[in-house]
Amino acid sequence: MAIDYGKSMAITGEDHVFGWMIEHYDQLTPAVMGTSGGAFIHYCGNEYWKGEYNLYAQTTRFVNDSFSFVASPVNTGSKSFSGTALCSEIEITDNPMQSTYIETTVRFHSASTLASAAASATDTAIPAVLCDKGLGIDFAGSAVDNVSYRNLRMFCEPIAYVNSSTNGVVYHAAAPVNAICTWRVDSDDPANIPAEGTQGIVNFYMTDSTYWELTWMRIMGVRPFQVTRDGKRLVQFQVIAMLDFSDGTSLGTIKDPTGATKWPV
């Protein structure tokens, strides 16, 4: 058995993958019977799997996408896992104090059985790595100054089901889309804090000219930070905005950095 590090890990259809993980198990049901000698047995259970992967690039997936998942830890031999998966979450994090790369995490749930020792995943494109220098947030048509942290989650709670056609595997179906965007601002002026309940469009920049556009988002709350006694933290506040489906006249949208409408579909 060869032992190696993930020098060429890959997810088919994605670029710049720097980590992935799968949880795969049978949901074994405990039982006690007269023939079990006073002990529990764990025999029958539905197959269940889920996972996530991380990349320094723009993902090709979106929430509720059903896609062919193929992941390889290395690029040699038939050393991969594959199956049909339902995308349940896209999370994008930008923390310029800790990293100048924008990190995207894709989470998914099972929609078929999981196979192993399949053909290796392919990751041949080498686009520019997403660098966050000077990037931030627009809210309600204006750029937000001094943004020191950003996080965008677009997600659903997929509907799990098992029936005679799934052959003992837990499948997951699409569910309503939700989104939360948070950003931290270095500022000592409460006048820069948006009022709770304010509605507007959020642009979450991935490059100088491309961004996730979320129409509409509503300010749920603001968390102020005070100066610490040792003076080593700036005065800050953190804004939390939630997806709102309409401005009262028209239905909102979520568009990816290419301008493609991902919701509604």
Q: Can you count the helices?
A: 0
User: Globular, elongated, flat, extended or rod-shaped: what is the shape?
Assistant: globular
Q: Structural class, from secondary structure content? A: mainly beta
Give the tally of structural domains. Answer: 1
Task: Report the sheet-strand fraction.
Answer: over 45%
Sheet with the most strands?
A: 16 strands, antiparallel
Terminus-to-terminus distance = 46 Å
Tell me the number of strands. 18
Helix content: under 10%
| Mean pLDDT score | 90
The helix/strand order is: EEEEEEEEEEEEEEEEEE
* Cα-atom radius of gyration: 22 Å
Unreliable parts? none
Which helices and strands, and how do they pair?
Blueprint lengths: L9 E2 L5 E15 L9 E15 L10 E7 L8 E14 L8 E8 L4 E2 L20 E3 L2 E2 L3 E9 L3 E3 L9 E3 L4 E9 L12 E7 L5 E15 L10 E8 L9 E3 L5 E3 L2
Antiparallel strand pairs: 1-4, 2-3, 3-6, 4-5, 5-6, 5-7, 5-10, 8-9, 8-14, 10-13, 11-12, 13-16, 14-15, 15-16, 15-17, 17-18
What would your notes on this structure say?
The protein has one domain. The strands form two sheets. It has a 16-stranded antiparallel β-sheet that branches. The chain has strands at 10-11, 17-31, 41-55, 66-72, 81-94, 103-110, 115-116, 137-139, 142-143, 147-155, 159-161, 171-173, 178-186, 199-205, 211-225, 236-243, 253-255, 261-263. 0% of the residues lie in helices and 48% in strands. The protein starts with 9 loop residues before the first strand and ends with a strand. The protein has no helices and 18 strands. The mean pLDDT is 90. It is mostly beta strands and 265 residues long.
